Amino acid sequence: MPTPTGVYPCYENQFKINNTAIANCTSFSVSFNNGVEEWTAMESEGWLSRLMTAKSVTISINGKRTLGDTGNDRVAAHVFHNGTDAQDDFSWTFPDGTVVTFSNAVIDVKECGGGESTDVGPLNFDVLSNGKPTVTPAA
Fold first, then answer.
1. How far apart are the first and last CA of the chain?
2. Is residue 118 within 8 Å of residue 129, measured between CB atoms?
3. How far apart are CA 69 and CA 65, in angstroms?
């Protein structure tokens, strides 16, 4: 199958926890934190040198709490976890088929339920990388 080109709707991004899709994700954002070492060597005549020495990824996902969905239930179960119990395998599939797998990612549940009486209960969480992810390019 040829690699897709052009613009795409965000819903074509897919997320899984422990290899199970998560129902009712409604929006997401991604931030990259890059550690950059800087120095100015004598021979550079005052010009700054830089080297990227660290990276991390945070994926913030908003959704609706869906009781009985395996993926949604697994995320929600992390609400009271600490330490390594708050870690899980997580993957992000891009619209072009590239898959990024995060082993032992930290699942930081921010909101699980709550709201006005007529609201649908939220499930909002951050996925924080924990070590280097595996990137599998699209076939």
1. 8
2. no
3. 9
Q: Determine contact, residues 97/83, Cβ cutoff 8 Å.
A: no
- Summarised one tens digit per residue, pLDDT across range 72-106 is 999 999 999 999 999 999 999 999 999 999 999 99
**Residues 5-50 pLDDT 10s:** 899 999 999 999 999 999 999 999 999 999 999 999 999 999 999 9
Q: CA nearest 38: which of 28, 46, 29?
A: 46
Q: What distance in Å separates the CA atoms of residue 38 and residue 81, rounded to the nearest whole number?
A: 37
User: Rounded CA gap, 60 and 29, in Å?
Assistant: 5
Give the count of beta carbons closer than 10 Å to the beta carbon of residue 59. 20
Domains of the chain: 10-136 (2.30.110)
How many angstroms separate the Cα of 134 from the Cα of each of 6, 29, 89, 127?
25, 20, 11, 15
Question: What's the chain's length in residues?
Answer: 139
